[in-house]
Amino acid sequence: MEGMGLVWMLLGSAGLLIITLLMLLLIQALRHQGMGEVLARQGRTLANQQAVNKQLLAERKEASAALRAERAHVAQLQRKVEVLQQALADHMVGVGMSL
């Protein structure tokens, strides 16, 4: 009889060990699922950030091109001012000479 009690105690201990391992496995699976959700959310955030970065880069390129065009326009206007100043100076010299 004593041997039978030992067998039942071993079977009970083995059953308790199996239940404990199953619970730990369930906890691990739930943690893994939670991590998958976090990873998916971070993936969506990354995709959104990449789209924003792409848009900002396009806007920066457009602004740089506009700035280059404005600088070229300013240089052109400065050349026109110099030509007009020279023409005015020549005209003033011509008016002074005719008086």
Structural summary, described in words:
It is a single chain. With about 100 residues, this protein is mostly helical. The chain is about 100% helix and about 0% strand. It is built from one helix and no strands. The chain has one helix spanning about 1-99. The longest helix is centred in the middle third of the chain and has 97 residues, at about 1-99. It is rod-shaped, with a radius of gyration of 42 Å. The model has no long low-confidence stretch (mean pLDDT about 90).
List keywords for this structure.
99 residues; 1 helix; mainly alpha
Form type: rod-shaped
Q: Major beta sheet, specifics?
A: none
**N-to-C CA distance:** 144 Å
How do the SSEs run, as a string of H and E?
Answer: H
- Helix count equals 1
Q: DSSP strand (E) fraction?
A: under 5%
Proportion in helices: over 70%
Classify the secondary structure makeup into a structural class.
Answer: mainly alpha
How many strands?
0
Radius of gyration: 42 Å
Determine the oligomeric state from the structure.
single chain
Mean residue pLDDT: 92
Low-pLDDT ranges: none
Produce the secondary structure layout.
Layout: H1 2-98
Quick gist of this model?
The chain is mainly α. The chain contains one helix and no strands.
